[in-house]
Inverse folding.
């Protein structure tokens, strides 16, 4: 009973990665305006408003850290999943992204993938590891485990037999 109540947390840890917790402490550091102007300030991202599968209590910086992981895992930028907002033009003259918008199918697919990855770790990898009784757990399955830096996971090609 006690162990199973811990599982959602370990699933979340698998998705977030250790870097998030380092970032969280930076996010909570008091913000004093530095002499160099706002550009030198460590960036603080706004709290999310539309999380449906990630833990709702993540800070803006934690969300950002996770998103950079998706970028690397799929070899895509933020705009692969996030729609632009034509009414919100940035200083470079191009529309900014509306991160809370659910307009893009890629974002919807990514939500399914987030839930799937959590499920794999919590309900499958964990059970095998329990039987295995290895002193060290294998690293959790992440987006990168399958995607390997690509939009579609590359096909496995077995080494030619000798
Ligand atoms: C592979 C798709 C994907 C990529 C790439 C991606 N995101 Fe996301 N992002 C998502 C999904 C899915 C959610 C919603 C998660 C949920 O519903 O719990 C989200 C949520 C967010 C949110 C929270 C919005 C809100 O208010 O709820 C922010 C901010 C965000 N992403 C920023 C970024 C940034 C910045 C990048 C690039 C560094 C990025 N994302 C790259 C899929 C992606
Ligand atoms: C167990 C392997 C596996 C894991 C883990 C995984 N994916 Fe996928 N993903 C796939 C497969 C397989 C497809 C289907 C590709 C296709 O459309 O043929 C896919 C498709 C996608 C697509 C749609 C791509 C397209 O071509 O339209 C997105 C976006 C995506 N994954 C994001 C993620 C994110 C974000 C994560 C981590 C939270 C993740 N995936 C974890 C296997 C995986």
């Amino acid at each position: 009973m006690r162990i199973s109540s811990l599982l959602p947390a370990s699933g979340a840890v698998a998705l977030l990665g250790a870097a998030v917790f380092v970032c969280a402490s930076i996010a909570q550091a008091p913000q004093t305006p530095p002499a160099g102007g706002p550009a030198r300030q460590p960036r603080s991202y706004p709290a999310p408003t539309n999380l449906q599968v990630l833990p709702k209590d993540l800070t803006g910086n934690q969300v950002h850290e996770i998103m950079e992981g998706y970028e690397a895992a799929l070899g895509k930028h933020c705009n692969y999943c996030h729609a632009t907002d034509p009414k919100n033009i940035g200083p470079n003259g191009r529309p900014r992204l509306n991160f809370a918008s659910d307009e893009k199918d890629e974002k919807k697919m990514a939500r399914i993938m987030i839930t799937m990855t959590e499920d794999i770790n919590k309900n499958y990898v964990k059970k095998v590891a329990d039987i295995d009784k290895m002193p060290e757990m294998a690293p959790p399955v992440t987006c990168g485990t399958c995607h390997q830096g690509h939009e579609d996971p590359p096909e496995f090609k077995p080494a030619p037999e000798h």
Residues 1-30 have pLDDT under 50 and may be disordered. Helices lie at 2-16, 19-28, 60-74, 105-132, 143-147. The pocket of heme C (ligand 2) is lined by residues 70, 74, 106, 109-110, 113-114, 117, 141, 143, 145-147, 151-153 (CB under 6 Å). The longest strand covers residues 84-89.
